[in-house]
Every structure is written in C-alpha cells, then in structure tokens.
What does this fold into?
Amino acid sequence: MGIHKKKKGNVALFFVGTQEGIKSFGESIQTLVNTILLTIVYLGGVGTAWLMCKISGRTFFTGKPQQEAKTYWEPLDLKKKPIEEYRRQF
Amino acid sequence: MYILGISCYYHDASAALLKDGVVVAAAEEERFTRKKHDTSFPLNAITYCLKSQRITMGQVDAVGFYEKPFLKFERLLGQHVQMFPKSLKTFVSAMPSWIHEKLHIRKSIKKLGYEGEVYFIEHHLAHAAASFLVSPFKKAAILTADGVGEWSTTTWGIGNEKEIQLLGEIRFPHSLGLLYSTITAYLGFTVNNAEYKVMGLASYGDMDKKTNSYYEKLKQVVDIKEDGSYTLDLKYFKYHYADRMPSQAMEKLLDGPTRKKETEVAQRHKDIAAALQLILEEAMTAMLKDLSKKTHYQNVVLGGGVALNSVYNGKILRNTPFKRVWIHPNPSDGGSSIGVALYIYHTILGKKREKQHQLSHAYLGPAFSTEEIQQFLDARGIRYSKFKNQQELIASTAKMIFDNKVVGWFQGKMEWGPRALGSRSILANPCNPQAKELLNEKVKHREHFRPFAPVVCADDALKYFDCDKPLPEITDFMLMVYPIKKEWHKKIPSVTHVDGSGRLQTISRKQNHLYYEVIKAFGKLSKIPILINTSFNIRGEPIVCTPADAYTCMMGTGIDCLVMGNFLIKRSDNEQDQWNSEHDAKD
Amino acid sequence: MVTEAGKRVQEFYNKTPFPDYELERFKTKEDLRIAAYPFAEILDRSIPENASIIDVGTGTGQLSAFLSLRRKCVWGIDFSDGSLSKARKLKEQLKLKSWTLKKVDLLDTEQIEAIGRKFDYVLCMGVLHHTGYTHQGFENILRLLKPGGYIGVGLYNTYGRIPLQIRKFLAKTIFKNNNILNNTIKDWFIRMQIGNIEDKERARGWWSDQYLHPYETTHSVGEVLKWFKGNQIDFYQTVPSSTLFDDTSLETAGVWNTTSQKYPSFLARICKQIAWIWQTHQEGGYWITFGKKKI
It folds into this structure.
C-alpha cells in the first residue's frame, strides 16, 4: 500500500525493469505456446471424443426441464467406505 | 493426534488443524497473502496452523484434501466434450492450471515435508462434515448446496453420531449456486465475491411473488418440483462451456443487457434480485420440507456456499418443520478444510464425537501478544497510548463509539469465515443516522444499498429482534437475518435494512468477554446495547490479519482510531502515514 | 584439553560475548520468544515439548533460553565466563527455571562426563569450527547424546565461506581490526550484510564474531558425513539442503524430518556447495547437518 515506498536509484530501477521485462516477455511466449498446443489438443482430442459421443448418442448432462418427471433428485449413496477408497483421488 | 485439512485451487484456499478432533487453528490463505479469495495452495495458512501448535509436518498424523480432483477433472472433460467447440476458450485457459497444479495435489503436500497418509473425500461430503460433525446434534438431516463439486451441486442426507450418508444429489450443470452467480454477474457484480450484495439488494425489490414479474420469468429458467429438486434450462446460461455470464436468451428474458459495473442500479435490477431470492427460498424451503418428511429428524444442518444466504437462513425454522438448525461459520469451500479433517477423524478413523469437539466460536486465526504489537508500533515510530487496564479500555472504547467515532477493533484470535465477529471489526454507533453514510463514504466505499450489521449481546437479542426462539446458536456467526422489532427501527437506523431486518451477530460473555463488555458499556451510555459491526478491511481487500494490516487500513480510510490489544492509536496523531485507499478500492 | 587456539577463543568471547544482545530488550518471556530468529523458531517446533536438550557452546544463551521457554530440561554449556555471565543475568531476569547453565570445555572429556547425563537432543551451532579440533570435539559431544537421540551440528562451509573470507581480507585492510562502531562506512558495510539492526550490541557481536574472530576452520559436507558414518549417526538432512532440486518448505517440514533429503551423492554435494557460495554468503557459509544416533 501507499505508506512505505522504498526509493530506488536509477541504476537499480533499470536492472529491475529489465528483469521484469524479460520475465514478462517469457511469460507471453509461454502463453502463446500453451494456447497453440492446447488448441491442437482440443481440436484433436476433445473433437474426436465429441464425434464419438455424437455417433454413440452419449451425453454427459441434459439441459432442459422435464415436465413429466416427478423429481430431479438422483440417487446417491455416499457413505463410509473402506479406507482404500479415501486414498484415491477419484 | 493432529489432522490437517486443506482446501484450495477454486476459491478461498484455506487450511485447518485438528488436535484430537478439536479445531485448534484455521485460516484462509487470503488473509496472509492479502489477495482476496486467494485460490493458491495455502502454504501460509498451513504454516500458521503448524506454528500455532508449535509443531511441524512431522507431527501431523493425517492430511485431507476437500474433494476428489480426478473426478472433477472427469466432469470438466465431459463438459468440454459435450459442448465442443464452444468451450475452446475455457479449455485453453483452464488446462494449464490442471496440468501444473490441480492434478498434483499429492506432490504439493509432499513439498510440505510430509509423507504420511493423504485422504481425499467428495466435495459435498466435506461440506456436510464441516457442518454436521461440529454441530451440537447427534442426529441431523443434512442439505448441502453450492456452485458445483465434482458432479454434485446439491445433496441431501443424514448424519448420525460419527457417520454421514448422502443419499440424493442434483448434478451439474443444474445448480442453485451457479444460478445465483449468473444473476450476480447479470446485475453487474463480481461472481464468487458479491453474491451477498445481491442478497442485500433484494430487499429493495418487490418481494411479492404475485406482483414481481421477474419471479415468473425466472420460473421459466428453473423448474422446481414439489420435493424442491430443480433443473435449469441451460439455454439461459453459459457456465457449462464458458464463463458465468448470462446468455443472450437470459438478457432478453430479463429485459436488458448485463448491467455494467459502477452504473446505476435501476428498480428493475432490484426486482430481479428479489425474484432470485424468492426462487432460492422456494427451492430451499421445498427441499427442506421434503427432507424433514423423508428423515423425520428435528435437526437440520446446511452446508455449501448457498448456506451463506442469511436472509433465507432466518426463515428456515419458521417455514419448515425443523426445530433446530446449525451451519458452519464458513460454509463455502473455505470451510471444507475443517470438513475434511473432521471426516477423517470421526468417520474414517472412527473417533467418537464428544462435547469438546463442538464449534462454539469462530476465533481460530492468529493472535498477537502485547509485546508483538508494541514492537510493531515502536519499530514504525507510531504515536500511541496504552490503556491502564481493561476497565479503561472498555470504557474508553464505548465512549468513543458513543461520540460517533469510527473505531477499528483488533483483539485476540482472528475470525474464521467471511464475517468479522469482534476480533477484526470496525465498530460504530448504530443510533447515529449518519453512521451508514459515513462508513460507506469514508471507510468501506460500498454501494449505498448495502446494509451494516448489528452486534448485540446474546441476552439482549430477543428484546430487539424478532428471532427464532430459542435463539439458534449460529446467530453467533452472523448467519441469520431477522426482523428488527418495529419500535427500534428509528432508534438504530444505521443497522436497520430497508425492509426492517438486520443480520445480527450475538455474543456471549463466555465467547468474547471484552467485546461483550464494550457492547454493554455502550448500552449504558446510549440505552441501546447494540453496535454496528462491520469487517475491518478496505473494499476489495481481505479482512485484516496483522497489526500492520490494521494500521495500514486505518490510515487509508476515515477510521478515527484503532484499539489494538491494550493500545490506542489515533489516526490524527499519525498524519505522516495517511494515504488514500479510495483511489485503489476495487469491488 | 587446553589448547593455544582454545585460549585465544576463550579470551575473545570473554571480551565480546556472542550472540550479543541488550539485556533490557528482554523484559518478559514473550520478548524472548518474539526475538527468536526464524530458524530457531523452526528448531523449536521440530523438537517435542518433553525432550531434553543441550546446547553445546551456548554462548550468551539466546537459543537455549528460547528453547527452555516451553520445556522442562534445557542445558546450555560454554567455556567462556564472559558469555555465561550474560546468560546467567538473562536467566535471573526472566526466571527461567528449566534452563541450566554450566561452564564446560567441550574438548575436555572429563568435564563432559561430569555433566552426568545424556540428552534427547544435542545442538552445537557454530562452535566446533572455533576449537581447532573439530572432529574430536564432535566425538566428545556425542557422549552427551542418548541412543536414538538427535544431533544438529552447525559449521562453516569450505566453499560457502569464500565470499566472507574475501570480505574479511578487505575489511582488515580498510578497518584494521577496529572494534568501534561509529565509523559510517563500517556501519554501512555491516548493514549491507545483516540489515538495519537497532540492537547495537548485537551488531557489534556479529561483527566481532564474523570478522575479528581469532580462530576458525571450514569443513565440507562430505567430511561431516564421514564423521556421521564413523559414529553410528544416521544422516537426516542439511540446512540448506544438499539434495539437488529439493523444494521442500523448511518452515512446514522442520528439521530431522525423514522425508526431506536422501543421502547426497558426491556430485550433488559439490554442486550444492558451489551454489552455497552465493546462497549462503550472508550467513558466512554457515550450514547445519542433522542426524540421529542409532539405537
């Protein structure tokens, strides 16, 4: 915040500024590369999966209310399990 | 036996430590990093928890994480596959975080210097555990509702001694929490940050289902069945493939584009907020009534971010068959670090629940000794005075508040959860009709429609508020909004909301005797033992944690003085450190 | 065993006790607690409350006094009367009942045995390299350690100390062993290394200890590992870490934590010690090795 601003000399500022500039440039390159790679993965991987799901008719969720349904609750049975189950991340 | 619970990477990263099942330390990461709703791995919070018990990770017996990351990832991939190619942007922005952090929780925990057992439990189980396992109930019905966990967005179940069973769920993308967030975004506020503003705005709108046209419009968006279960019409939303902004269909339905921040809040917006509140209350009430029918339990606990809706919480016992309700002081994801730790201790390891395990207060964060505060003040050359004794501290503070000064109050252990509860609070005179404007303009820079909250001693609550009887314990955590009795509206105008309600905090002498005594002393001067209690922070910043944070906040705002430990620091005595926080204030 | 080096060192510490501090800073036990260095705080959390500790070469005792705040049995031994006298004043001022101070020469095995007991934890921080008989000293202090007990030994590193040795040479030339702190350039020189310190006695003590000490040796990690091996001590870790790419957080992991580090290979040790040249230059190339005595 605004209370304690340390005064830096011009030389120090130059070095710090250059360092930050290089860091920022590096981060921009990283973002660009990530974007390109992930777009390829998306179009290739996710796209393929989408196609397969379209063909097989599989959906992950529905998006419209169903007037005839009595309830939207789905059964769940989350209770104490063998300890091994809790060591898993799924 | 020490158990550490961790919650992070989505919002409100936090850590909590149990010693033999008792919560001995807990804090959100944001308080240390000063970055609001900080989501990063809570290294500072974990370090605090360990330091508070003078231990290292070597003495920790188990670590728990509050959800199942791989299950969540599976849901995310499912979203992207189903919504291809609309979700490209979200995929590209979200994947790096998953690849580098979210799929490597074990690695992050190992870096702490720990190689013992790490447990992962389902997201909603952590919410349920956070409320049920520290509640006063041996048996209770459980309802959790939030944005989304792995797949569940809403669940119901039962708690019995140390066991929790969740028996039904509503799955993503149908989510009350996400509905609320979308409307929050539509109304021009920040998602995951400002939902409570929308709740406050609702009171300015039309809360009558028959006359509020937006209620009927929103009924087209969400279909609520008799048992309270609901589903959303996804054409009005974008969160299942993009951000949480409303779709064009939603904007058309609500008669206009998304409100831009800092522009005027029209009556239409207030009515939409009111309609949303009505919808939420309708769904929650129906779910709770059905839950009561299914379980036949008298007690209910709520968890998940939706349980922060204190306007609704104050109506639970009146509108449902339940006799008692309990909610964790930090019911959203931040509180799940306690939830997972408790679940490990009681459910997984089978330890019995005893009276000492109940959470009767929320003072779980860092405290600073007189010596530490004095060292800080002296090192910075701050001008201050010291109270001779506690009586002087109490009397002086009460007098300053009575004289319409705005007092920063920094005492004891920092609160756990989003509310200030008398450890890191700003106190002011509720009888002063200008107090609200004063606080908003000079200190908090908040929107004018947001109310300030009253704090009252537990033994006086029923005199001023139309509360449930007996008074629910959770009024201590500022989780209930009740009507203020009509005869007091004009006497405490600064804490009376436009609809005559107040989100009160109650305090007993046993919980926080200093705070209690100040309120009573103020009551002797003003004849009304109630104070304005608002969080000690500048808008856009987390609540203050250290003496340095408190001093910085005071010097950047219109707070007149700071009562920190035994010390009194006046803003006017330290002109050299003054600065203007209004310039930097964010939402 | 009275040695020539030992006499010079004893005389030195009698004149300028270390670590030095202004006694009036510590009016309450809380003052002592909050003045603890960050690493002392980590050490305190790494040692159980019910453990017995001996700090060999405790000097003025700031570390052992701090550790005694929440424990029942903490000893501090040293051979300098000057240092122990300050320590005793601190003990009296704060009424530290569980802190025992004794004059013992660690090179004298009879005096070590005369202590008459063993401890769960033996600490010897920045002491053995001033004795001239570092290895012998190490084996002596092991007599104080219970089987299954834990040891921490702090020494100057052969590589890490190089920058300070260069600075020392420059300082000797410019300041000519002057111990008066009013000199502005000298003041700036000290502040550049250890920051702004209000406690003038502490600054003077540090300057003396680092720049004017009459006797010191340096040692390598490999050397200490050999001593450990030869004396049935299991290696746990060094601080700073000797393992390459170790990103464990010391604040949370603490020390004597089995997870932290594997036994460092020769290559790892060399790389790390070279890195210490710039990483530890502010501490004068100081590093600590932690281990556990086999049962």
